[in-house]
Amino acid sequence: MSDAMISLERGDWQTLGNEASEIRRVVFIEEQQVPQEEEWDGRDDACEHFLVHLDGRTVGTARLLPDGHVGRVAILSEARGLGLGQRLMEAVIHAARQAGHAEVLLDAQTHALEFYQRLGFTAYGDEFLDAGIPHRSMRLILN
User: With 80 as the cut, is the pLDDT of residue 38 above it?
Assistant: First the structure.
């Protein structure tokens, strides 16, 4: 991993949408069996998008909604466990802070709660199903 080239990219749906949508298609629609109509919610044009690249290949994505919610965080299976999700989320959190948000909110799949807790997020509310997958709402207060 120390010899790997990691880069982050930040932009709008027009610029990054093709690559982001391919990652989301593989992770959410194929792997997790999320119905296409739930994945493509019509909100992407209003979001800021983020990509993470490993050795020139796009391997992850996330989006930041105008209200400070983070969503559609996805890393391809072959790139998981390399710290790329953390780098991606740090970029999203930085962007939220730059935009003046007081907090960052997200709905985490329950298997990813520890990942987000390590970034400083705290869970609140009851567990709920989204696309048939258990989730919890989480919040990170920005200082």
Answer: yes
Tokens 């982050």 sit on residue: 8
The CA distance from 116 to 66, in Å, is: 20
* Encoded tokens for 110: 């329950």
pLDDT of 62 over the 90 cut: yes
Q: Residues 66-119: pLDDT tens digits?
A: 999 999 999 999 999 999 999 999 999 999 999 999 999 999 999 999 999 999
Class of domain 6-101: alpha beta
What residues does each domain of the chain span? Answer: 6-101
Task: Report whether 93 contacts 116 (CB < 8 A).
Answer: no
* Residue 114: its H or E element: helix 113-118
